[in-house]
Amino acid sequence: MFTGIIEEIGKIKGKRYKGNGCEIIIEGDKIFEDLKIGDSISVNGVCLTVEVIKNKNFSVSLSSQTLKNTNLGEIKVGEYVNLERALKIGDRIGGHFLTGHVDFKTKIYSFKKEGEFYLMRILIPKEYKKFIVKKGSIGIDGISLTIAETFENGIIIYLIPFTIENTNLKYKKEGDFVNIEIDIFAKILKS
User: Three-state DSSP class for 18?
Assistant: First the structure.
């Protein structure tokens, strides 16, 4: 379980295909404070298991399903990812509950600066529209964000400068894929 408050931006240092899956090596800094082999970690909103820790790098394995259904399938060496360690009982929850189970990936429809803020439009597949709640929460690449507005095919998110600067969104542009996790409470209430 995660909160969607990104701890740091990691960098992809290696990607090696193994059978129908692959291993990625990620460089970080802050997350190593108490990170252990076997821990769950959110990488762009995907719950993965830490398998190797060496210096300031850790490795995780991606199944064929993860490669197909998340933006980690297209990720390249040198690109940046959002990192968050699993929630500890007793920690503050600054965002909202995220499971790390991505519902779908989608392209950023538009992404533009408006004054000092940013406006991002994301397309939502029809089968997920019923779970979208204006002013509700949504996980985008593991970031806990608020849905400001809806439009026929998607949602609008307003981003503050702090969020841009402290997440991988500062490297994103129109047409890039992002991982989406629908708010678990919206799923329960609307199923």
Answer: strand
Continuous segment of H or E residues that includes residue 66 = helix 64-69
Q: What is the pLDDT of residues 6-64, one digit of tens each?
A: 999 999 999 999 999 999 999 999 999 889 999 999 999 999 999 999 999 999 999 99
Spatial CA neighbour of 46 closest among 62, 30, 31, 27: 62
Based on its alpha-carbon atoms, the radius of gyration of the chain, rounded to whole angstroms, reads 16
Domains of the chain: 8-85 (2.40.30.20), 104-190 (2.40.30.20)
Say whether 36 sits in a helix, a strand or coil: coil
What is the identity of the amino acid at 94?
Answer: G
The dihedral region occupied by 135, where left means phi > 0, alpha psi between -120 and 50, and beta the remainder, is left
Residue 25's nearest CA partner among 59, 71, 68 is 59
